[in-house]
Structure formats: C-alpha cells, structure tokens
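## tool: complex_structure
## caller: assistant
## args:
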Amino acid sequence: MNTTKFIDEHLFPGQIGYFLTILSLVASLVATYSFAKAFFSKELEVQTHWEKLAKIAFIIESVAVVSCFVVLFYIISNHLFEYKYAYMHSDKNLPFQYLLSCFWEGQEGSFLLWSFWHCVLGLVVLATKKKLGESVSGVMMVLNFVQFCLATMIVGLFIFDMKVGSSPFLLLREEMNWPILARPDYIHLIKDGTGLNTLLQNYWMVIHPPILFLGFASTTIPFAFAVVGLINKKHDWMDKCMPWATFSAGILGLGIMMGAAWAYESLTFGGYWAWDPVENASLVPWLTLVSAIHACIIYRKTGSSLKVTYLFFGISFLLVLYSTFLTRSGILGDTSVHAFTDLGMNAQLLGFLLIFVIPYFVLFFVRFKHMAEPLKEEAIDSREFWMLIGSLILFLSAVVIISITSIPVFNKIFGTKIAPPEDAAFAHNQVQVFVAIIIGLLTAFGQFLKFKGTTKAFLVQKMKAPLLVTVAISIVIYVFVGVAYKEKGIGFEGAIYVALFASIYAIVANIFFFGTMQKWKLKSAGSSIGHIGFGMVLLGILISSSNKTVLSWNTTGISPLRVESNKSPAGNPRENITLFEGIATDMGKFMVTYVRDTFDILDKRFFELKFKEKKTEAEFFLYPDVLKNNKGMEGFSANPSSKHYWNKDIFVYVTSFQDNSKEDTTSFKPHQISIGDSIFYSNGYIKLEKVLVNPNANRPAGSNELVLQLAVTSKEGLKYTANPGILLQGMTLQANLDTVKVQNLVLSFNKVVDQQKGILEIGVKESASLTNLITLKAYEFPFINLLWLGVIIMTFGFGVATWNRTNKLKEK
Amino acid sequence: MKKTHIALLVLIAAAIVVLISYTGDLSSYETIGSAKQKEGKFVNLIVKMDKSVPVQYDPVKDPNLLQFNVQDSVGGKISVVYHNTMPTDMEKSERLVLKGKVQGDHFECSAIVMKCPSKYKDNPNAMKNQPVTISN
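## result:
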C-alpha cells in the first residue's frame, strides 16, 4: 500500500472525471434498456412511461459526457501534469488553439469527442420526434447502445483482471514507475509535459477531427434506422432517414478532405492523399454511405433495391467501427505512418466491432426473404438501373480498397508475411481511375434519365448541348494542360485522359441539368450541386496529380557524367536540391536563393527562400519551416510552404539542413605557388591564373593592391573563381580573403616569397562549417484549387439536399 | 434472371479479378539472407542500423546519396544505397523497414519507414521507467 502523502496534487478534477465517466456509462445503459422497453412494448402507456425514464437517462448521460469534456479540457489547459493525459499530450508553450488538438491526439479524448457528437445528434433526434414517428425509441436504443460501448472505452476499470477501457484521468504516478514519482513533492519536479506531436500543431488539426468525428457519429443514425426497420419489418423509415444520411455523407466527406488538406499543408510526402491505411479507413465508409443514399432513392421511387439499401446503410456504420479497430489497435504497425498509439485494448476494440457486425448480419439474413422487391425488371433506359450500377461500383470500389488495406489483419490471422506492393499508390490508382471514369459518366447522363424509363428523343434533345460543351472543354484541357504522367505507360495515361473527359462531363451535364431541368432553383438542386462538386473533385485530383511536377530536379554539384551512372532503378529520386545561404541556385523556371533563417517564439525555424522567375523576373518568398521534434524523438519535422496561384501551387519543404554554428577550428595551410601552377585540395585543385596589380580603381589613395586570380576546379568538374588579395597602405598590410562556399574553401594571399622567380604563398583553409545549407524539395501542383473548391461545392450540395428533405418531412 | 442481377455478377467478378491481379503485385518481408538470393526482386527488409560502419551523407556533394549499413535479427548484413536525403531520425531509429531490391553487393533502397524508439508511439510501456522531460 502506498502511504506517501503527495503534496500539491490537484486530485479533485480527476475524481470528478472518474465519477462522470462512470455516470455516463451507467446512464447510457439505463437509457438503452429504457428505450428498448419503450420500443418493444405494444401498449402506449407502457411506452410513454419508459420513454420518459429513458429521456431522463439520456439527458443525464449527455450532461455527464459534456462535463467530462470540460473537466479534461480544464486539466489540459491548466497544465496539471500530474495527469498522464496532460503530460503526454500537451506542454506549457502551446498556443491556446492547439490545446484542443491535444485533446484529440490521444485515443481517450477522441472517443470522448465521438461520444459528445452522439449526444448532440441524440438530442436532435428527440427534438424532431414528431417528424420521425414511432421509430424514435428504436433509433435511440441503438444510439445509446453505441454510447454505452464508447463509454466502456474510457472508463478504465479492471473487471476480473481485465482492463476495460483507458481513462483519460489516470495520474502519472499510477502509470509510471519513475523513481521521482515516489517523492512527495514530485509535482514540482515535473516542469513540463512532453507536448503535442509537432506534426499536429497545425490549424487543420483543430478543426479536422471534430468534423470527421461528427461524420463518424452521424453514420450511427441511418444504421439505427436500418436496425429498427429490420426488427419491425417496416421499410417506411427511408424518408425520415434521408436528411440524416445526406448530412452524414456531407460532413464525413468534408472531414476526410480536411484531413487531406492537413496532409497537404503539414506532411511532407508531397501531396494530399497517399492511400495510407488511415486515410482509406475513413474514405471507405463514405463510399458505401453514398451508395446507400442512392440505393435508398431507388427504393423510394420504385420499390426495388431494398436489400442493398439495408446492406449499404448497415455496412457504412460497421466500416466506421472497423476503421476504428484498424487505426486504434496498432495492427497497422508497419504500414501506416499515422495510426493511434496502441493502448492494449485490442480485445475490447474487436469486441466493439463484433457486437454490432454479428447481430446486424444475423438480422439481415433472417429478414432477407421477407424483403419483397418488385418482380418487374428495371428498364435499361431507366434512372434506377444506372443508379444501381453506380452505387454497386462505388460499393465494390470500397470493398477493393478495404481489402487491400486489411493486409496487416490478414497477416495477423494467417501468420503470413505479405507486404504492400512496390508502388502502393499506383496499385490503387490503376483501379480507381476506372471507377472514376464510370462514376463520372454515370453522374453526367444518369441525371437526365427518368425513373422507370426515358424516351430516346428526350435524351438526345437534352444531352446534345452538354456533350458538345464537354468535348470543347476537354480539347482545350488536353491541348493546354495535358497529362504529364507518363511513368506508367500509355494505358494508364490513356485512362487518365478518359477520366478527365468523364469528370468534365459530370460537371457540365449537372450544370445543364441545374439550369434546364431545375430552372436554377436552389431548393431542389442539392443533387446537381453535389454532383458538380464531385465532378470538380475528380477533375482536381486528376489534373493536379497527373501534372504534379518536380521543380527541384538536382543538376548542381554533380557532373553530367555522374548522373548517368547514379541513376537508380527505383525511379526518380533525385528530387532534392542543395541551396547554400546567399547563393542563387537554378531550379527549372526559377532562380532560388536561401536568404536567411529566423526563429519564432515557439522555436520554429523559418527558412526564407527567394524565388525569382527567370522569364518574368517576378519574385516571391516562401517560408518553409522546421520544428524540433518533441516526445523524446530526435531531429526535426518539416512543414511545407506553398505559394498559391489561381491555377497552381508551388509547394516546397526542407528535407535537411546544416548549420555552421560549429566552432571553426581548422587553420590555413600555406602553399607556395607561381603563375600557371596548380595545388590540390581535398576535393579538386586550385590554379593560379594571374596576378592583378591595382585592379580596383576605388582603393584608398596611396595604397597598392595585389589580387590573385585563382581558378578552382572540383573533382566533379565544376569551376569557380576566387580573388584573394593584399592591400598595402603605408606600413599596414591588409589581407582580403575570398571563399568558395560551395567547396568549403577559404583562400588567402599571404605574401610574395620570391619576387624574381615569381613565387607567392597562398593559404588554403578547408572548413566543414563554412556555410549554411539546406536541401529542398519543390513541386508544382497545377489546378489543385479545383479540388478544394469541389469539396466546398459538394458539401454545399449535401447541405442543400439535407435542408430540402427536412422541409419535405415538415410538410407531411 | 434480371438484368440487374447479371450486372451485379459481372461487377463482382470484376472486383474479384481486380483483387486477384492485385495479389500479383504484392511483395514480402524478407531477411537479408533471403533477399540476397532474390536479387533484383522488390522486397521489404526489417533491419536495424549497423553502427560499426559510419553513415555517409554529404549534402554538399550530393543531397541525393545516402549510404549506410544495416543488419537484421538473424545476423545478416548488407550496405544500403538510398537516393534521397537522410531521414532526420534515422540514426536513432531502433527499427527500419527498407523497401527496395538487392543489386550486386548492396541494397538499392527506394523507401525507408522508420520505427522510432518512441517511448510513446509504439510502446506505451517503454516510457514507464524512464521519463523524457524531467529536470531537477
């Protein structure tokens, strides 16, 4: 038993926190049970009784979760480092806005965030009860059961020696065995926390997780509707569910793309999407959710596609759980760069997944036979036929992506040692480009099809104009932008051209549809706006990725001969260019100079780079930075910087840098030399070409000057000149040194040894710490703004659809 | 059979074909010894740095050339050539996953995935006995 009296600890917030987590756990269980009682009961009186109780339980739960949130934030923002969560995820220097990022850097905080959104959504469900009808208690039952599972994740109890959940309110001394933690005054010895991971210190990390988790949380509602529908064998919930589904897809899509924007701005793989398992795991539920929305529309209009609607809505939520399992269990290990820390809760996470997967599929297959669909066949010229094809393709594309992502799971189960392919991104791209083609085309002409069949004359009449415009725009883009991506052969290049056409077609056809069919009326235009946005996302991805060019092709420091022999079979890795402080370096279209570097108050080191366009002489500055890593890791993490033009981004980041802060201890070595002679230094030779007498007209009056003209030739065959000299003024002799920074050379003219024979003495100093240098990568991303604009428009489209469908429910 | 059913089957077949063809691109984790026997084949190595041989990297001469030596858990050793800058944490890293192929006497590396000795990221228990930022 530990009997030490610890002084100055703040135990009170933690005790409240523990109490609140347990309260929310119990309240969510009570709410689940009571809503279930209300849902399964046939008598109205019993229903109202249980519902009242359930509501109270749910409100208590919501208050508990929100309070928990506040307490944890209090602990972090007041730097109470006796708590492990504050110690592990924050430090005193963090600006205020990043204190929120600390909150969701850890698993516990992000579970709490997820739980918080469920509370908000649940309150909205209860508030709109009248519109949603009798299924409300069923939906709330499912929602509260999810809440119960989430609460177990952060409760941190030991039940029969098994750790259930991991509490964010653990004390440092309860977890760690550091000797100093045994001292009563340990709290005064802990000066600071380990801080927030430097990569997460970005404004996107303040906003991206809440949006993404709202997206995750909101998939619960359509799932809950589907569960209720399966239990009740009633399929009339689809109208009520639609606003929830479109809201969820809009927010989830936005959240994912905010993550992409973060990766683009603060990660240094040079892009916004890398098919990383963590990215895939959040994309896949979005794909299936979009499939579900389309299947649901088909069912409501025609009565068919009922089974796939249930399958897709169910699986979207289940995939959210699966991605939770993937990213939090540590199973991704070697394959992902940004998964969560493994908290040793794998069994619990797996349980969380299975407790929903198994019952849902059992229920689904039990009801399968009862889901009657019309026997009549869909006409091939009907909207529902092509819409179904589209949603099946999106669904299967999701299946392919998640299967590939699950290789580590496969390895774990079967003990195999399968690793990702050589070019993992291309392995995805070569498949998904065809998905983009088909989906793009369907998005375009599918809009003009009518449910249950379309006449040919109508189609031809409506489709002519958009098709012509698309062809015209495509030709312009092919000619003026084109596809610069030729590494993977003509087949893939051709596919990109077709996909470009398909995405332009999707945009144009939907603009036409918005104008001619919907007469520019915003109210019903959710789908066409959403599809325009989607088309722009596709187009932005295709153009910016296929035309991404490396600006920093390295041509310095290497002779033409060595380039050939060094060419690596691994592609084109010579993307780093070395910049010396103060020396303009040729970089394709630009001359780039590393001007200086500065530190800000947070110890971020900014490198000022001057870009000067050769053609126009236009100048601009970029400030990529590096921040010293925290959490005990060595080294630095680099943040890119980009110059935004309307039609492209110039994107640079520092890959390494070298300081000259070291003390210079090397000394000059004297060499005797006469005109025409050469002497060697470690990386080449120096030749004395001639001696200039008084070359500078503006020297001080009465002085004499001797200047040497030295030609320095490096091993690589590069030539430099240097002009050290001496200035004689009366009796004082002043030596003027000269340097060849790139070769780390300092040269001096020491004296004249023998005037008759023309022998001079020069000093050569080779200093490793002569110059500051950085290595840099620079890319150009054309038309990347199309992607971001597309995301905004698509989200707006989902918003309009949600608003419109909510209004329709009100009218009923 | 409905047309939609036919379309469904065709699409599922396509997805299966895609997945099967994908398995052809997959690579494997190898030891240095087995990788040497598969010269020229793309493999993944799980190794650690061989600290007895100094790392060669001079951004002044060539920022795209890094040479170092590694060894694996069964004692295999090989020198590595990586045409890129030196990852900042590499020398501290306990474990490296190298992607690339053996060519002649060396391993031609195309990507390095680092596993940091992170007290924190990989193993929450590693920090248990050793504080990171404590000053007395």
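## assistant note: Chain A touches chain B through 73 residues (CB under 8 Å). The radius of gyration of chain A is 33 Å. Handing back to user.
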